[in-house]
Amino acid sequence: MLHLLPSSSSSFPLNPQFLLLRRPPANLRVLLLGPFHAMSAASSSSRRAATAAAVPVAQERPPALRAQFLIECLGDLKRNLMKQGLDLLIRHGKPEDILPSVAKAVSAHTVYAHKESCSEELLVERLVRKGLEQVVIPQGGASNQKKPQNPKLQLIWGATLYHIDDLPFSVTSLPDIYTQFRKAVESKSSVRNCNKLPPSLGPPPSSGLDEIGGWGTVPTLESLGLSMTKSEKGMHFIGGESAALGRVHEYFWKKDQLKVYKETRNGMLGPDYSTKFSPWLASGSLSPRYICEEVKRYEKQRVANDSTYWVLFELIWRDYFRFISAKYGNSIFQLGGPRNIVSKWSQDQALFESWREGRTGYPLIDANMKELLATGFMSNRGRQIVCSFLVRDMGIDWRMGAEWFETCLLDYDPASNYGNWTYGAGIGNDPREDRYFSIPKQAKTYDPDGEYVAYWLPELRSLAKERRNFPGALYINQVVPLKFDAGHQRRDQFNRQRRPGNMYRRQK
Ligand SMILES: Cc1cc2nc3c(=O)[nH]c(=O)nc-3n(C[C@H](O)[C@H](O)[C@H](O)COP(=O)(O)OP(=O)(O)OC[C@H]3O[C@@H](n4cnc5c(N)ncnc54)[C@H](O)[C@@H]3O)c2cc1C
């Protein structure tokens, strides 16, 4: 969130005058401005430059889904702020253009924002800082006593479970391997408590708003030039903190799912196999520290077991990718990844489109890709499987897959998305760099009755359960053979120049 304090205020966060919600993941591309740019079909993102030519214009639905979620976040934040005696100032544009003019209008001495870690967000931080340097705020008293000042940009670390200042190492010497990172933070760091909200956040600023057009209103999809028909199927997420807290309560306390999370978390169908917290975490509507407090409370009041711990274990993955992005900078978006591995990748458009649209001939892949397109969500198991298929079986440039996820995911977060993709593509810091997800094996283990594929591909429902994932000629043709089929290594037709003499290991 972004707070602007009038120059008369003395301390943050006691009297924030504005809260501007940012685009996920909690960056300075203010929610009211950036996300809708970023979601437009032809993104100008510098990260995308390398593959932009190969990635066709995004379809309407995915950007509209995330825009709708963010609109709901805004509406909820506005309502909650009004209950606290404040309001939400809403503008649509670039942060570096808008924030200086707002700061000037309300004579703000400081703009507060969460510190970011990825290149595009860091650029926005720099541009905002530069813009604020151009703003001159006259100080009270006789003009020759106090010099006019520029508003300052103060950046605060905020998105992770463990605070960056509490890590037992500097970011530059962060362990590259997840397990080493996790063990070090678990043994040497502790998670800070959540900050308590003051009883009142008001009063709102008494002057200056008129010259910048008032508080502004929550946009609608139509006002952003987007439209969408609701999908009747799959998860439907409602944006905002109220819904986020409701989900934590429901999953932990009402449905009592936390105690079995570790056993169910690899599921793909239904609302409760995993927490589904990610869209709210990514939009800054939910704090990982709050989740941690609730886990501890649950452990005291109900049960502490492997499952209760495992939610924290997963949140540490999220931290890990965030800190890795701070350590490795732009390289997590580049073809060779953090370790600059040179490999040969294909950008075959027809193959890529069959993956993107769910027409590969493999029900497990197609069902997952259809779910992503319809809902903006996919299970972690599904993400690993479709990622492995794209990079290992199709040999497609992993950045094309990452960009499609970036376009579609409600929980899109640059560090988690590109971190996981580099991991899956074997160019991240995975000690097992040739991790391969065998589709037949994954289907038998995680969708034994074909319920998941029949849900997203209804044409398969009439088949016998054991045939749904293996329909043969009763389904569309397979666009590529699998690298490993029925337990035998196949000739590596797609990637053979990439890893000579190197067999892809199978996923356990
Ligand atoms: C190729 C690929 C791309 C991904 N892109 C994203 C992304 O853009 N944004 C995102 O939030 N997650 C991403 N993930 C991680 C993971 O799939 C989702 O966080 C998870 O599926 C969200 O569902 P959930 O909240 O029910 O997770 P749960 O299983 O309930 O986990 C609880 C929380 O832990 C965190 N978490 C769990 N697994 C991971 C992981 N592997 N990496 C980072 N955090 C994790 C998430 O914040 C999640 O909400 C990606 C994974 C893969 C394999």
TrEMBL record:
Cited Pfam families: DNA_photolyase (PF00875), FAD_binding_7 (PF03441)
Binding annotation for FAD: 261, 274-278, 314-321, 411-413
Cofactor section: FAD; (6R)-5,10-methylene-5,6,7,8-tetrahydrofolate
Annotated GO MF terms: deoxyribodipyrimidine photo-lyase activity; DNA binding; FAD binding; FMN binding; mRNA binding
The UniProt record lists the keyword Acetylation: no
Domain of life from the UniProt record: Eukaryota
SUPFAM superfamilies, per the entry: Cryptochrome/photolyase FAD-binding domain (SSF48173), Cryptochrome/photolyase, N-terminal domain (SSF52425)
Any Gene Ontology biological process: photoreactive repair
Keywords: Chromophore, FAD, Flavoprotein
Domain Photolyase/cryptochrome alpha/beta: 1-161
Record text on cofactor binding: Binds 1 FAD per subunit.
Record GO cellular component, one term: mitochondrion
UniProt site (Electron transfer via tryptophanyl radical): 345, 398, 421
PANTHER family from the UniProt entry: CRYPTOCHROME, CRYPTOCHROME DASH
Family per record: Belongs to the DNA photolyase class-1 family.
Functional note: May have a photoreceptor function.
Protein's name according to its UniProt entry: Cryptochrome DASH
Species this protein is from: Oryza brachyantha
Upper classification of the organism: Eukaryota, Viridiplantae, Streptophyta, Embryophyta, Tracheophyta
